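Sequence only, no structure available. Ideas?
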Amino acid sequence: MHRLLLLLRLVAVGFAVLVAAAQAQTTDRTASRSLASAPQRDAASLLRAARTAAQRLNYAGTFVYQQGSQVRSSRITHVFDGRNELEKLEVLDGVAREYLRTNDEIVAYLPQSRTLRMEKRVTQDVFPAIIGATPAELAGHYEIRSGTSERIAGFEADSVRLKPKDRLRYGYALWIERATGLLLRVQTLDDKGEVIEQITFTQLDIGRIDRSRVKPGIADTRGWRVENVVIKGADLAGWSVRGLPPGFRKVREIRRLVSDRDKPASAEGAAAPATREVSQIVFSDGLAAISVFIEPMTQGRTEASVRQGAMHIVGKRQGDFWLTIVGEVPSEAIRQVATSIEFKLAR
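Reply:
I predicted one. C-alpha cells follow.
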C-alpha cells in the first residue's frame, strides 16, 4: 500500500504498464458489463478476483490516501496487453513525482532534483494490487466475512471484512468492484475496529485506456542526473527472526546500494554523498509486510521508534550493525520482531 516514510522503508514503489489492441478490446467488453446484472459474490470469490484484477485490467483514476488529518492524492493509469503491464503513478500533492513501470522496471521522474531514478520493483503491494495470498491462506489468520455493499467512485462495490485472529496484525475492510473485481477502497482497522488509515478511489475509469496516457508527463529531461539503483538478490545467511507473527513468511532477500543523498539531514552528515550497501529481508502474510533493513553501524545513530498511521518503525543497534525494522503491524508485533533478530556467523 502507499505509506509515508518511504525513505526508511526503502521499499521500491512498483507501478504497472503496457497494451495491445486485441486484449484491450476484450478487457473493455468485460469491464463494460451491466452492473445491474452482475450478481453479488461471496467473500472468497471477491478476494480471488481482487488478487488478479489490478494486474489484468485497464483502468485509470485518482485515489486518496488518508491517515489521520493527512490527506494525499495520486493518479494511477494502468494498461495490460495479456503479457506485459504499463503503469504510471503521479503524486498530486506536495513535491511533484512521477513513476512509470514496465513490468518490474521502474523509472522515477523527480523534477525538483532534476533526477531520473531507475530501479527494479521489490514488492508488489501497491494499491490497488495489495492482496498477495489466496482466501484459504488468509483464512488461517483472519476471520473472513462478507460486508455491506456501497457505491464508490460511481461503481457498485461489495465489501469483505478481515478480522485478525491474534493481536499481531491489523484488520481490514475491502470494497471490491462487483463486475470486474478491482479493489476500490481499503481501510486498515485497529483492535477496536477504528479506521487507522484508508485508501480509496474518488474517480475511476475501467476499460479502454489509451496507451498515450502511460507516457511520461515530462518530455524534456536533458541535463537531468540519471541514477541506477542497483538491487540484487541475496542470501543473507546468518540472519534470522525468531519472533515473526504467525503466517508471516520470508518473501524476498535483497541487497541495494543507497546514496546518502537520499537521507534526511542528520548528525551523521557526510561532507559529500556516499554510497553504502543496505540489505533487506521482507516478510508478508499476504496483506501486511514487515521489512528488516541491515547496514553497518555508523556514528551518530540513536535508537528510537516511530509510528505513522499503521506503520511502525524501530531503529536499533545490534553488534556492528544498524537495523531498521518497518512493518504495517501493531507495535506489539514490531517490538516482538525487533527483539528476536539474531545474527550468527557461519562456522
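Residues 1-37, 262-272 have pLDDT under 50 and may be disordered.
Hope that gets you unstuck.
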